[in-house]
Amino acid sequence: MEERNREYNPHHLVNVFSVIQVGVDTVDRPPNNHIKRLDIFLLRFSIIMQIVDMCFDYNIAIRYFLIGEITYFILSICLILIPSLINVTVSKRMQQQNREVQRNSGMDMTDDHKTTRLMIQSKLYFAIAVLFELAPVIHLREALKYALEARKCEKTEDRAGERRYYLKMLKADQDIALLRVFECFLEDAPQLILQLTLMLKHYENRLNLGYVHQGSSIISSFVSMGWAMANYHRSIRLAQQDKSNIGAVGTLLQFSWHFCITVARILSLSVIASIWPLYTTIYCIIHWISMTIWILIDSRGILEFCRTHSRPPHMPPAIKERIYSILFASVIGVIHVFIYVNTVDGKTFWKYLFFYSLCFLENVTSNLLWRKNCPPAVREAWYFNVSFIVCIVSFCLGITAMVLYYTVFHPSKRQRTSNTSVQAT
Q1: How many beta carbons lie within 10 A of that of residue 136, not counting itself?
Q2: Beta strands in 12-156 (DSSP E)
Q3: InterPro entries per the record (predicted)?
Q4: What separation in angstroms does the CA of 100 have from each of 11, 209, 295, 306, 322?
Q5: Alpha-carbon Rg of the chain, whole angstroms?
């Protein structure tokens, strides 16, 4: 829905990651660069919550093991460790890329974190980071350190240092946002499908404390996914110097859009998986492969992230870089099973139209097949009609929020309106 200049910029990754240039002035930044106590509190709180989430993840797996559900235990462990491995690998690449950019631009690298060096150099630390899902924690810790340094510079009235650390904190926040998207849709979304499938298969048509607890956890996960996507788009805008930032109403619409689409998508996959788990898995794999191929057709953003910055920019990608780009595109393809993430900046109307039309067709088909082939006991359950209505209504509300965002509250619309008002005066 928007065009951009596509000239090569060695410090600017196309849409997947956008590198904030710390050493230069920026155009679209909040005029107030100082860090508030609330910012530091939220960063510390986020670190604690990330650790708590890790404990809950392992708690679910251990509960399956204790009740003798070994298959579900193995699935849960895989859904913890595989996404964590991907997140740590992507995090390692982020750190390497940041160091390459700093080295090539002659920037000072003395403030590199010890954890950053360990992430890149130590295999033992890499394994520990995977086991304990530490990728977001490492970046949160970096963001916290930058925030504290910015506060220290503010007290000494070092405005240049304050701004530099403030922008470093924004860059760390951007990395956290993308890692959180990976975590939500590579780990939480499959876990939700597993939990919902088990609930639908073993539901006894009566509410109890266990189901209320599970339901609350599921709703919380849906909210986290919606916010992860909204925050990701907001952080991408903050990092792009030539674009306006997303306002509060735009962020709310972004959240509503992705929350509603995700609810419809995961619920639709869960109901069909409750009767045909194998066929559902096979179809999700087909969808994943198709999305990966689609991403690779126009993979400039992926290639840019996987490129070695020490090589001249005009040279074609090396074989190693090609392999890495295919692997990274396959990870983004998994996310496309649930939600659309644009990897190349530019017009998105036809991409959205194709993707969401396909998802709507898949959602309706899965619900109709479930309603026709589900056991008789399910037809008498209270959720038999409710689930279908929720899937359709939620998807339509998500599309409505997306259309409203792009037609009224998109930053380019607000900027155009503001320019028109200025010219009129």
Answers
A1: 26
A2: none
A3: XK-rel, XK-related_scramblase
A4: 10, 53, 26, 12, 19
A5: 22
- Which value, to the nearest 10 degrees, does the dihedral of the CA atoms of residues 124, 128, 130, 131 take? 130
Query: How does DSSP classify residue 75?
Result: H
Domain segments of the chain: what residues? Answer: 37-424
**pLDDT for the residue numbered 119:** 62
For 69, the 3-state DSSP assignment is coil
Q: Are 191 and 77 in contact (CB under 8 A)?
A: no
User: What's the pTM value of the predicted model, to 2 decimals?
Assistant: 0.84
- Pair of tokens at residue 258: 């992705």
Contacts of 322 (CB under 8 A, 6+ apart): 303
Say how far apart CA 93 and CA 182 lie, in whole Å: 14
CA-CA-CA-CA torsion sign (103, 105, 110, 112)? negative
Give 274's pLDDT tier (boundaries 50, 70, 90). Answer: very high
Q: Are 177 and 235 in contact (CB under 8 A)?
A: yes
Q: Which parts of 122-188 fold into alpha helices (H)?
A: 123-131, 135-155, 159-183
Model confidence band, residue 31 (pLDDT cutoffs 50, 70, 90) = very low
pLDDT tens digits, one per residue of 223-250: 889 989 998 888 888 766 667 788 889 9
For residues 141 and 147, is the Cβ–Cβ distance under 8 A? Answer: no
Q: What is the DSSP letter of 318?
A: P
- Residue 175, pLDDT > 70, answer yes
What pLDDT, on the 0 to 100 scale, is given for residue 1?
42
- pLDDT for the residue 419: 52
8 Å CB contact between 408 and 376: no
